[in-house]
Amino acid sequence: MQISGKVAVVTGGGAGIGAALARALAAADVSVLVADLNAPAADAVAAEIMATHPGRAIAMGGDVSDPEVLEAMIARAGADLGPVEIFFANAGTTAGMGLDTSDALWEVALDVNVMAHVRAARILVPRWLESGGGYFVATASAAGLLTQIGSAPYSVSKHAAVGFAEWLSVTYGDQGIAVSCLCPMGVETALLREGFDTDIPGASVAARAVTESGEVLRPAEVADQVLAAMEDERFLILPHREVLDFYRNKGSDYDRWISGMRRFQRHLVADDE
Question: CATH: 3.30.420.340, 3.20.20.70, 3.40.50.720, 3.40.50.200. Which one for 7-272?
Fold first, then answer.
């Protein structure tokens, strides 16, 4: 897809990967609605873009797991920028940790990390089928291909995000709808760093599982790779190339992979004590 001249919505656009995507899109001549639960953060990113790319960005705050909020965001983008042709389901949460995670936190994790994607697709796909195409980009995680030591809700919800993106691509790929799924490891974001800044038991182990597995990339590096992958309509976007090796090792010998993950977990827990 040639993205120049298109209209995009980026959820979780107030910081991290989302903000970097919004900036990169604007630089590529894409008009962007920056969406975030933190409305002032979304406003700040949109204002920054407008300073260098006038007329290229608007902002809207709200909970993107709420279907009414999603409807309003897509309608606002359509009214102010034009019909939404690209949707980045990028908002995410690290809510919850182990078996003691409450049902309420499980619901938050699944709502934000999975159902927000489903609800957005439910709105946009019928419109894209009528108009002749669109592009859905889901931000999952390497945890969605592998696992996340320490956090059951994150691991499970990111696996589900990958699964939904796969299904969406298989089901609608022949009808003009492109789908990509972003699965990075460590990226320098507040979501990653809050694991080191909280006193929640096990949070630092979960964060170190990410930072010790590979290089921690800058959000702008990830955004550049996403846009490059979209040019080829590539499904799986892996900013950390080693993730593909990890994934292949997992599939080739599942028991050995699980044993290795247990060993890695023991190392992380021992260093945390």
Answer: 3.40.50.720
Beta bridge partners of 158: none
CB-based contacts of 219: which residues, under 8 Å, 6+ apart? 16, 17, 19, 20, 187, 188, 189
Residue 246: partners with Cβ closer than 8 Å, 6 or more residues away: 142, 145, 146
pTM of the model as a whole: 0.92
Burial of 141 (0-12, 13-18, 19+ CB in 10 A): buried
Active-site residues: which are they? 154
Domain residue spans of the chain:
7-272
CB atoms within 10 A of CB 267: 14
From the number of C-beta atoms within 10 Å of its C-beta (0-12, 13-18, 19+), residue 40 rates as: exposed
3-state SS assignment for residue 45: helix
105 membership: H or E segment, kind and range: helix 103-110
Which pLDDT tens digit goes with each residue over 77-91? 999 999 999 999 999
Residue 75 CB coordination number (10 Å): 12
